[in-house]
């Protein structure tokens, strides 16, 4: 079904291209008169060149005017699109980065001046002496530490 649809679309597209080409040829044959230069004298050829030059200038001016209008309209459309986006309030949001915020700062931002309670959780933790643990680890490391553990397990005071 899909291949049939694609084949039909291709046929219609090809037909449309042929139709456009035929329309273009018909329009040009109506607008452009054939140029006969055979049997003309030098002065007649110069007059013909002047006429053609004047026509080219007129067409070029029209083309320039149309191009200027098109550019003006394009700029106006762009400005109106920006105004529409401003009125809607929908802007492209930048990707957000993660930010570390303490609990105090978050409560201060949410509650403002009402925030009086301190949420310093680290102050409530027990402090551990690192020296003792380091000595115990050093004392128990190696063969001497295993021997001490073995001796402590054998002795009645260790139980």
From TrEMBL:
GO biological process assignments: cardiac muscle contraction; skeletal muscle contraction
Cellular component terms per the entry's GO annotation: troponin complex
Domain of life: Eukaryota
Entry coiled-coil feature ranges: 10-62
Disordered as annotated region, ranges: 132-159
Pfam families named among the record's database cross-references: Troponin
Function: Troponin I is the inhibitory subunit of troponin, the thin filament regulatory complex which confers calcium-sensitivity to striated muscle actomyosin ATPase activity.
Name of the protein described by the UniProt record: Troponin I, fast skeletal muscle
């Amino acid at each position: 079904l899909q291949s049939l649809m694609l084949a039909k679309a291709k046929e219609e597209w090809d037909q449309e291209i042929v139709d456009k080409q035929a329309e273009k040829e018909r329009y040009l044959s109506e607008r452009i008169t054939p140029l006969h230069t055979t049997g003309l004298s030098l002065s007649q050829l110069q007059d013909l060149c002047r006429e053609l030059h004047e026509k080219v200038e007129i067409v070029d001016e029209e083309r320039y005017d149309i191009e200027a209008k098109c550019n003006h309209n394009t700029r106006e459309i762009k400005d109106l699109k920006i105004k529409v986006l401003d009125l809607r309030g929908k802007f492209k949001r930048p990707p957000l980065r993660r930010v570390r915020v303490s609990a105090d700062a978050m409560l201060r931002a949410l509650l403002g001046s009402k925030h009086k309670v301190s949420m310093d959780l680290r102050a409530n933790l027990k402090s551990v002496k690192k020296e003792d643990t380091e000595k115990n680890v050093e004392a128990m490391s190696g063969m001497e530490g295993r021997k001490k553990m073995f001796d402590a397990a054998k002795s009645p005071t260790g139980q």
